Amino acid sequence: MLDGVPMYNVEHLFGFFSVFTPEAVKKVSLFKSSFPARFGGRLSSVLDVRTNDGDMEKYHGSFSVGLLAAKVNLEGPIVKGKTSFNISARRTYADLLITPFVKSDDNLGYYFYDVNAKINHKFSDKSRLFISTYNGRDVYHYDSNSSDKNTYDSDYNSQHQTVTVETITKDKVNFNWGSTIIAGRWNYIFNNKLFSNTTLAFNDYHFKLGMLSFQKEKRNSNYSEYNYQAKYNSGIKDWTYNIDFDYDPVPTHHVKFGVGYLYHNFCPEVTTSKIHEQENEQLNDTTYQSASNNNVHAHEMSLYGEDNFNLTDRFRINAGVHVSCFNVQNQSYFSIQPRISSRYQLTDDFALKASYTKMNQYIHLLSNSNISLPTDLWVPTTKKIKPMKANQYSIGGYYTGIKNWDFSVEGYYKGMDNVLEYKDGASFSGSSSGWENKVEMGKGRSFGLEFLAQKVEGRTTGWIGYTLAKSDRQFKKGGINDGIRFPYKYDRRHNINIVLNHKLSKKT
C-alpha cells in the first residue's frame, strides 16, 4: 500500500527493481503474520509504505547515476513553516545501452520510469492536508523491417519470362504496464484522545499489448498484402474513500475504527484482432473480439474496529473485527473477519506471541508463470467466481537478552479456499472464450518456520534469516494436475538471507 492506497504493480524489470524509490519513502511497516482489523481485502502480508512529507524549513536534494538507472530527489518549503513539497523521479536507460547490440534493421528497447510527488500543508496544529501522486510505467517495444528484391528467369508452360519479386516485411510488438495514483489525505486532531484520517484516492493500473505483422509482395503485375493487428488490454480503475479514527479513552487502551468504500471498474481482458488480406483486386477484412470485452463494475464496503490493550503488565492483546461487503453483477458477498493477536512477556528478555486472522479477498491474481510478468491479470469476484477466504495461525518466541541483538523463531499455517488458477493448457490469450471459462477454483495452504538473528546497534549491523516453508495448491480430481497437490509459484522450501552493514566513519 502506498499512502493507504493499494498498489497493483510493485515491480519493474520483471521483479529486479521495486517501484518504491528510497528517497521518496518516509516509513515502511510490514505485517507478516498478525493482521490488524484495519487491513482488509487481501489474504497475504501487508507492506504499508508512507512517502516523504518534504522539509518545511530548507531546500535540499540528491542526484545519482547507476549502471542501469538515474534518479533525482528534491524537497523543501513552498511556504516556509506551512507548506512543503517532495518530488522523486527515476528512469532506466537500458534502452540506450542495448542499442549498439541490435541489428540495424531492428529497433528493440525497454525502459521504466516512476515519479513520486507530495505536497504537505499545515492549516493549524490540529489540521493538516497531504496530496500525493505516483506514476510509473514499464515500456517494451520491438520493431523489425526488411525488404527484398529478386529477379529470376522462369519457364512456365514453355514460355520464357523474367520474374521480379519485391517483398516488404514488418513486425512490431509493444507492451506497457504501470500505475497512476492520486491521493488526498486530511488529518484532524479533535482533542488529545481522538484523531481522524480521511483519504480520497484514484488508482489506475493497466497492461496493454499490441502486435503487428505486415507482409507485402509484388510479383510482376500481381500484388498481395497481408496485415495482422492484435490488441490486448487489461486493468483496474479504483475510487477509494476511507475515514479512520484513533481513540485513546484511557492510557491502557488504544482503539482504532473506521469505514471505507471502494468503487472498482475492472477491465479483465479486452482482445481485438484484425486481419486484412488483399490479392490484386480481391479484399478480405476480418475483425475478431473476445467474448469478455465488457467491463465489470463492483462496490466494496468495509467497517472495522480494533482495540490494543493491556490485560496485565505482561499480557497485551490486539482484538478486532473487519466486516466487508462486495457487490458485483447484482450479487452481494458478505464477510465477518475476526482478528486477534497477543503478546506475553515471560521475562524481561523473552516474549511469546500468537495470533489468529480470518481474511477475505475479492480480487484474484491470475499468473501465467513462476516469475512476475505483466501478463499476471487482476480479475474480480463475479457470479461464477467466489471470493477467496483464508484462516491463518501463527505463534512465535522473541529473545533480546544479548545486548544489541534480537532473536526470533515463528511458525505459521494458512489455509485458503477458492484460490484461482488457469486450467491446464489455458493462458491469458489464445482463446475466444472469456477468462471465467479458463480458470478453476481450488484450495491452497502455506506453512513454515522462520528463524531470525539480528544485530540492531553498533558500527556493524545486519541479520541472518532462514525460512523453512511450503506453499501449494490442490484442485478437484480430473482438473488441474488431476487433483494432486503441487508447489505454488511462491513456494520457497529453503530461504536464507544474510545482510551486513558496516559504518566506516561518520560520513561513510
Structural commentary:
- With 508 residues, the protein is an all-beta fold.
- Helices cover 1% and strands 68% of the residues.
- The chain has 1 helix and 26 strands.
- It has one helix at 94-97; strands at 11-12, 17-18, 25-31, 46-51, 60-65, 69-79, 83-92, 106-122, 127-156, 159-189, 194-219, 222-247, 253-279, 282-289, 296-310, 315-328, 331-345, 350-361, 363-366, 377-380, 388-399, 405-422, 439-455, 460-474, 486-487, 494-502.
- The chain has a 20-stranded antiparallel β-sheet that branches. A two-stranded antiparallel ribbon has the order 1-2. Strands 3-4 form a two-stranded antiparallel ribbon.
- A hairpin with a 5-residue loop joins strand 12 (222-247) and strand 13.
- The longest helix has 4 residues, at 94-97.
Describe, in short, the structure shown.
This protein has 508 residues and is mainly beta. The chain is built from 1 helix and 26 strands.
- Helix count? 1
Residues in helix, %? under 10%
Computed over alpha carbons, the radius of gyration is 28 Å
Which spans have pLDDT < 50 for at least 5 consecutive residues?
Answer: none
Largest sheet: 20 strands, antiparallel
Structural class: mainly beta
* Elements, N to C (H/E): EEEEEEEHEEEEEEEEEEEEEEEEEEE
Beta strand %: over 45%
According to DSSP, the number of beta strands is: 26
Q: Terminal Cα separation, in Å? A: 32 Å
Mean pLDDT: 87
- Quaternary state of this entry equals single chain
